[in-house]
């Protein structure tokens, strides 16, 4: 029986823009870590809301705006705090609470809530949300132990052989894969009405 392959432990590094060059390390298993996972880890470690955390590549200044984006090992990012949306709303209400505003009848003073319209033209679904085997949105994604990449559990089962369907490395066909719960959570939270999903 072939020996089991375990994922290597790797690291990425982060520092807060307001704290100079004080670097901290986050360890993970595999070759990549999702932006959403890193934001969650930093927010939990620093006891701050996740919505406050924005990640920027220290070398290229690229802003990592999507939780599904994958970061390579050993990358360094700068953490910037972003203002929470509710704080902006509170400031607006304070301005609107002056005397002139208070004289407006209640029916006129209350702003109407308008639901945002769905865009008529859908945008292409980001590739990080698509299974590399079936090219469809991930369904119960699992991580291959040999290369750390993800695919649908069904796609792995349909391509059962003595080599990985993603990297072609030899593996134990009975070796269990690891469910990618974080990726499943991200995909499950997507509003698919905004994306053009391959059929």
TrEMBL record:
Domain annotation DWNN: ranges: 12-83
UniProt-listed PROSITE patterns: DWNN
GO molecular function, one term: zinc ion binding
Pfam family, one: DWNN
The name this protein goes by in its record: DWNN domain-containing protein
Organism: Polarella glacialis
